[in-house]
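Hi R.,

Here's the chain you asked about this morning:
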Amino acid sequence: MLHPDPLLLIPGLNCTERAFVPLLPALWEQTTVTLVNHRRGDTMADIAAAILAQAPPRFALLGFSMGGYIAFEILRQAPARVSRLCCLATMARPDTAEQADNRGRVMALAAGGKFDSVAGANFPNTVHPDNVDDVALRSAHLTMARDTGAQTYIAQQRAILARTDSRPLLPTLAIPTAVIVGSADQVTGVDGARQIAEAVPGARLTLIEGAGHLVPLEKPAETATAILDWLRS
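And the predicted structure, written out as tokens:
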């Protein structure tokens, strides 16, 4: 039997729907799936509003990385429309000063015509150390970056820098919530995932061994299993 609420999947920074493709066969067996366009709007509030304008009246929501920041904003704007939440490789807190400085640096490089170099240099930080030499993963990562483009990348980075601290929202959530993260996530981190799981009442944390931040592409079978467990809960 299909899950009654359609599932909206929101990609991350510099990601497209390709990030979710390996998960789709398993998810389609359980529910209707919509791959969300997160490229419309200059702020998290605007991006969330654009998604809500096209979304069904009620839905399950999965946010991957930046998609998690958008999911939190959707919950602020329309909490009654979200039936359950999956936080995939994301965090609720704002950037540290170091993270914010790094975003400014890579935005300047991208604006200066070095976007491909930024994407290539970032790849090792997005995967498990065992996957740094994985040609297929590197190709998927760079393809998503090129499909995104420098202009959208810079706009998304600005939206991320200006995002609201979502930690105060977490204890107010009263929906089934899953938190999934790669064991070697160097971007949003295991600590960021654990903070969400500990703050949301009844949330369940799943650690995916052998994966970094790009967990849906690195370990699709394990990630799909965790998502299905959440949908069935």
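The radius of gyration is 16 Å.

Let me know if you need anything else.
M.
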